[in-house]
Write a structure and sequence with these properties.
Number of strands: 18
Number of domains: 2
CATH class of the largest domain: Alpha Beta
Radius of gyration: 23 Å
Strand order of the largest sheet: 3-4-5-2-1-6-7-11-12
Strand content: 15-25%
Bound molecules: adenosine-5'-diphosphate
Structural class: alpha/beta
CATH architecture of the largest domain: 3-Layer(aba) Sandwich
Shape: globular
Helix content: 25-40%
């Protein structure tokens, strides 16, 4: 495919600092990593000057070369000294995203994940690791910035960058001095970054911020609540999730605040990176195919069966899941019905890691049903692509799912998703019924309520339809026709930035 020409950033558009704790391919633990690369790239394709701010974990420093030092923060109160470096993250043949890296060896130079050590324990100094991310974000968005480049908008993502709007709010500022407007995006409300009250002073936040009308959440300092309270605008990653989090149980205690701020909250569905997730070009899959000719898909099923030591069997429907293995993702329910799934007869392939007990249970199931259930514990980009291409039906029995990406990837790969009716899954999957089949909108299977019985009944419904090759083909092609690109969603973010930029003290000229 010829590279799409990317326009030079327009001086008329707002400049955006996109603050994130992870970005694909340097450091990714979930959907946020994908979004942090794909959304800025899509915004740049619309002509916006978007730049990233990310902590300098070892894999970030090693993966971005060359880098140049652009600022030094030697005497930052409350934080160890650090250096700000600039580099570029290549995103496609035509463009790269400028990245600011916070190089602070004392906080980030260590082996392990971005949030946890190699044993899965939260880093004990996360309050400082992400306090610093929030602080530098606020500095770069204010007149205290040492940089010439000044954003109109600081766009914060999840609790790790939640303190930026709070620091900005309390930054002394007299117009015409400059201060960016802030957007806080919720990718998952279940992770809130709550810390003991003494951290308020430790982070240099004023005591008055520790208030019900502020950053306090049940006696703790909540990074996420700080972001939600002080940000100029809130977004979340699907319209349905934006509704769900305004009440129990999915509001996780923040429903009152979110409901009160609903006038400044927008649900925008995530897109997918269509250059990374494309069955016609995907380098990780066994055989390429497209909507117009799905005949090569079966070669991927065979390759997947071989790779995961499942019995070579074209006719048994192959169900699959790729996920964090957690209660949120419904793996406890999936493992309950796995023996009945095998009886259908069907096969089950699982790739994921997470809860140790659930991992053990799944591994035991694979041992009990060799050739029918395969489980790979770990995080493997390559295998995840082969599963999307090789499976017949993709399972997402999530209890809640702010947006979800795999149901979109799987539709693009002609692998109809089977999902619980929650969050972004409702916005992106159309249940297969006689009516939706007739009008060509059916793309998968949606079940409710989230019980083992309903999940199994829906798996049986899918397995039955799988026998009807012509109808199944229609379902696959309906999904492959859908536009899950970032174009529309990026334009929705641009509308919010433009609205907010009109309110800041910046001049866009
Ligand atoms: P969440 O962010 O809640 O984990 P999403 O569906 O939004 O869920 O995004 C998950 C992303 O991480 C997807 O791109 C998915 O393919 C990927 N992923 C999750 N677990 C694994 C794994 N074990 N190996 C490879 N990719 C994984």
């Amino acid at each position: 495919m010829a590279p799409i020409p990317i326009p030079a950033p327009s001086k008329k558009e707002p400049r955006v600092l996109f603050i994130t704790p992870e970005v694909y391919p340097l450091c990714k633990t979930g959907g946020l990593g994908d979004v942090s690369a794909a959304l800025p790239a899509a915004l740049r394709a619309l002509g916006l000057d978007v730049r990233l701010l990310i902590p300098g974990y070892p894999q970030v420093l090693a993966g971005l070369k060359p880098k140049r030092k652009v600022a030094e923060f030697e005497n930052l109160e409350h934080f160890p000294p650090c250096v700000l470096r600039a580099a570029k993250l290549p995103v496609n043949d035509a463009d790269s995203i400028p990245v600011f890296i916070i190089d602070c060896p004392e906080l980030y130079s260590r082996e392990g994940g971005p949030y946890q050590d190699t044993a899965g324990r939260d880093w004990p100094d996360n309050v400082l690791r992400f306090g610093l991310l929030g602080k530098i974000g606020a500095i770069l968005g204010s007149d205290a910035s040492p940089l010439k480049w000044q954003p109109h908008i600081v766009h914060c993502n999840d609790w790790q960058s939640g303190l930026t709007p709070a620091y900005l709010h309390f930054h002394p500022h007299q117009p015409p001095q400059r201060k960016a407007a802030s957007v806080m995006t919720i990718h998952n409300l279940a992770f809130q970054g709550n810390f003991p009250p003494e951290t308020v002073a430790r982070l240099g936040l004023p005591a008055r911020s520790f208030n019900m009308h502020g950053a306090e959440f049940h006696g703790q300092l909540s990074f996420l609540k700080a972001g939600l309270y002080y940000a100029d605008h809130i977004t979340t990653v699907s319209p349905n999730y934006a509704r769900e989090i305004q009440s129990e149980p999915l509001g996780f205690g923040l429903q009152g605040l979110l409901s009160a701020r609903r006038g400044q909250m927008t649900g925008i569905i995530n897109g997918i990176d269509e250059s990374v997730w494309n069955p016609a070009t995907d380098p990780y899959i066994a055989s390429h195919y497209a909507r117009t000719d799905l005949s090569a898909k079966i070669a991927n099923k065979r390759a997947l069966q071989k790779t995961m030591a499942l019995t070579q069997d074209d006719t048994a429907p192959l169900f699959a899941a790729i996920s964090r293995i957690t209660h949120q993702k419904g793996f406890d329910v999936l493992q309950q019905i796995a023996p009945q799934l095998v009886e259908i007869p069907a096969q089950l392939a699982i790739l994921g890691s997470g809860n140790a007990e659930m991992e053990k249970h799944l591994t035991a199931l694979a041992r009990a049903y060799p050739g029918r259930i395969a489980v790979h514990i770990g995080y493997t980009e390559a295998l995840s692509h082969l599963i999307e291409a090789g499976a017949d039906c993709f399972l997402m029995p999530s209890r809640f799912e702010p947006c979800g990406l795999n149901q979109m990837y799987s539709q693009r790969y002609g692998t109809p998703p089977l999902v619980h009716a929650t969050g972004g899954l409702v916005d992106t999957v159309v249940d297969c019924t006689p009516a939706t089949l007739k009008n060509g909108s059916a793309t998968g299977f949606v079940f409710h309520p989230m019980t083992a019985e309903q999940l199994l009944a829906t798996i049986r419904r899918a397995a039955k339809l799988f026998e009807d090759t012509a109808t199944w083909r229609m379902l696959q092609q309906n999904g492959m026709t859908k536009d899950f690109s970032w174009r529309n969603s990026a334009a929705a973010y641009r509308r919010i930035y433009r609205m907010l930029a009109g309110k800041t003290d910046y001049r866009t000229a």
